[in-house]
Amino acid sequence: MSAVSVVDAYVQSLPGETRRLGNGEWGITLPASQGGGWPLDVGVRVADGLLRVQAFALGADDAINPWNFLHWNRGTRMVRFACTRTGDIWVQAELPATAVDETQVDRLLGLTVEGAVAARHAMAAS
C-alpha cells in the first residue's frame, strides 16, 4: 500500500473536520478544546519521498522568545519547532514515505499536535 493510500485511509477515519486538499495533501482541524485554546490546523503532505506534517502553534508576539522553542528541539522526538522570520511558531515533522504505516502516521500526527498544544499552554501560562 502506498504512503498516500495509508495516510488517506487514516485521515478519513478521524473524527471531526478533515479534508483532502489534493493528491497527497490533507488538512485536519482540531477544535479549540483539543487544540490548546483555539482551533489547531494541521497540514499533512506526501511528496518528494517524505510524509510531512506541520501545525501552526503561535502567532508572532513580543512576549514569545522563539529561542526557547528552538531549545525545546533538543528534547523532542521526530518533531521540531520552527520560527518564521516574522516570529510565528510552527511544529513540523517528517518521515520517509517508505516508513509510513498507520502506526507511524498516528505517532507523527500525535507528536505534532502534542508539540503545538504544549507551546500554546506554555505561552498561556506566562
General description of the model:
With 126 residues, this protein is an alpha+beta fold. 33% of the residues lie in helices and 33% in strands. The chain is built from three helices and six strands, in the order H-E-E-E-E-H-E-E-H. A six-stranded antiparallel sheet has the order 1-2-3-4-6-5. A hairpin with a 2-residue loop joins strand 1 (17-22) and strand 2. The chain is globular. 26% of the residues are buried.
Key traits:
single chain, 126 residues, alpha+beta, six-stranded antiparallel beta sheet, 6 strands
| Helical run tally | 3
Q: Please, what is the average pLDDT?
A: 94
Class per helix and strand makeup:
alpha+beta
Helix fraction, binned, reads: 25-40%
Uncertain residue segments: none
Largest sheet: 6 strands, antiparallel
Q: How are the strands of the biggest sheet laid out side by side? A: 1-2-3-4-6-5
In terms of quaternary structure, the protein is single chain
Order of helices and strands: HEEEEHEEH
Based on CA atoms alone, the radius of gyration comes out at: 14 Å
Shape verdict: globular
N-end to C-end Cα span: 45 Å
Strand content: 25-35%
Number of strands: 6
Per-chain topology:
Layout: H1 3-13, E1 17-22, E2 25-30, E3 40-47, E4 50-58, H2 66-72, E5 79-83, E6 89-96, H3 102-125
Antiparallel strand pairs: 1-2, 2-3, 3-4, 4-6, 5-6
